[in-house]
Amino acid sequence: MPKALRAARLLISSDSEIIQDGVVVAQDEVIIASGPWSTIQPTLTSETEILDLGDVTIMPGLFDCHVHLAMDPSSFATTTAIPPEDKEVSALMEQNCFRVLDAGVTTVRDLGCAGTLSTELRDRIKAGMVQGPRILSANAPITVPGGHAHTWGGIASGIEGCREEAKKRVKEGVDVVKVMTTGGFLTPGSSPEKARYSVEELRAIVDVAHTHGIPVTTHATGAEGIERAVEAGVDCLEHCAWSISNHLF
């Protein structure tokens, strides 16, 4: 049965004008019409369910390209804190899913958690078991021993070690492979300004991921790490702070 959502305002895209008294018509989770109520209303059938939402604005869902659903946004805990049990983290991740949906975010890139918690949550949402946004999962980021977020797993060193860890992400079914090219400010002693992987190690990760059509993104705050990531063919840089000796530019 078609469903028409009428609202005081409708924004169809970021470069369009706001439509006053707009409506969106959907059927089987697919939008089949949108525009001014005066234009769409005559085309509606008697079977259409009409919901008047009142003084609100209907707009496309937002994308958040860098989240950590497994982290408490109200906490300043470092990544070296003793990780809670998976069950507790899973509950927090589900709570954060409700928060992002409530903020109008319908797609997120979840760029790091312990183990395979992100792909597990993604699949529960797809199966209708949990309400949440569309998740592009990375699972545990690949990092050096003692490196940024090393307590989440994903520790690898050397070309072969990096290649094997990337293969694990492929097997887990991630949507994006995450690698910590430098240290991070939330992991004491990991040296945010220092490059932690060689170009060859990064390229091994990129080659495995790209062979399976999976993009690679990297946490890169230091200048040298940023340069190495680009040379290795990494697809996306996170943060890109150009830090040198713990100073930001």
TrEMBL record:
Entries under Pfam families matching the protein: Amidohydro_1
Under the heading SUPFAM superfamilies, the entry gives: Composite domain of metallo-dependent hydrolases, Metallo-dependent hydrolases
Name the Gene Ontology molecular function terms of this record: hydrolase activity, acting on carbon-nitrogen (but not peptide) bonds
What superkingdom heads the lineage? Answer: Eukaryota
Q: Which InterPro entries match?
A: Amidohydro-rel, Metal-dep_hydrolase_composite, Metal_Hydrolase, Metallo-dep_Hydrolase, Pterin-binding_dom
Q: Name one GO biological process term.
A: pteridine-containing compound metabolic process
The record ties this protein, via PROSITE patterns, to: PTERIN_BINDING
> Where is the Pterin-binding domain positioned along the sequence?
133-249
Q: What is this protein called?
A: Pterin-binding domain-containing protein
